[in-house]
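== Sequence entry ==
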Amino acid sequence: MASPPSPKRRRKDDDTNETAATSPEKSSPVVVFAHGAGAPSSSDWMIRWKGMLGKALNAVEVVTFDYPYMSGGKKRAPPKAEKLVDFHADFVKKTVDKYPGHPLILAGKSMGSRVSCMVACKEDIDASTIVCLGYPLKGINGALRDETLLQLSIPIMFVQGSKDALCPLEKLEVTRKKMKCLSGLHVIDGGDHSFKIGKKQLQTTGLTQDQAEDLAVEAIAAFLSSSLGER
């Protein structure tokens, strides 16, 4: 008859199991960060925000990529967002395979945030949260593009410039009230579609551009901490 493990051995095994279950590495999210329509993942804006998101969210990795129309160094007009969904979703799946067990966050700049929302609606994508940096709620023709937002069932965080012509805040607020999922909003006062703030506005608020963006990132981190904790 086998003898039971000694208390010392049992304690060691218990500690090992507990460490594996509560490993901070496993609790760190992986972020798939999609670029906007006019600039690739190698743009200064994307590189800067990639670093800020990674640090603030304690991400295991923030992964960026280029949509096919942007690859090869040739700048071409983007296709309709719907035509980018499959490519984006495939990239997400490959990232999830590389980091199994980590919460998945879909993030995007402008068009990339809209496609991220479309990807999140797919049945075979299990995302925890979406982060939209300058969501283009209003199309070029002025039509409201809220259909995908109304289909979402996972938490979503919006960061919008108060002077972003592609997302009037009053229209976003109406949309948020109709959405069935939890949503958060941080407004960068005086910011445009890429969050750039004019000098006069900065003087009025007493903030620098970096400080204003730091506050936005802190708001994202707080929202994700709360929403991931509830899932």
Summary: Confidence is low (pLDDT under 50) at residues 1-24.
